[in-house]
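Lab manual, section 2.4: Encoding a predicted structure.

Procedure: take the sequence of the chain (177 residues), apply the prediction step described in section 2.3, and record the output as structure tokens. A sample record is shown.
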Amino acid sequence: MPAVELDKLRIPGVLQRFSLTYLFLALMVTAFARVDDNQKAKHLSPFRDVLLYWPEWFLNFALLAVHIGITFALPVPGCPTGYLGPGGISEGGQYYNCTGGAAQYVDKMVLGDSHLYQHPTVKEDYKTKIPFDPEGILGIPTSIFLCFLGLQAGRIIVQYPSHKERIFRWTVYTIAT
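Recorded output:
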């Protein structure tokens, strides 16, 4: 059995992303924990599902802002700013080594090429040469936000006993996001 080569070990992955997402959310919920009586909080209705947790909302929107800022404003050498495409032969090969744009660049700078996924689907489909990890660092903030929305959906179940209120809020969240 071959030995594991630590200098080539893939660091990002689905389970790693899950663990970092859940760790962040657990720390956030713990840091902003509050003891509330749902009956006392009813005076905040119909916005208590947001108002009671405003620091968490703020933090999550700040994470999204950082993600968007890096994705669309980080200059990537040899690539147009904000490029999100597959690179390779896409667009006539104009952006050949730009696979993943800022996401790939951040992963490369932080982790190095040898720790990224070496055989992504895009490599075969678009004839790219560079490694690209679809579970890279820049995807973590959006995963955190998505899980936060799931947490909020659960809070709605706890705070609003009526099916009508729950469905209304979930519909608003769906339209807003």
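Check your result against the sample. Residues 6-34+46-140 form one domain.
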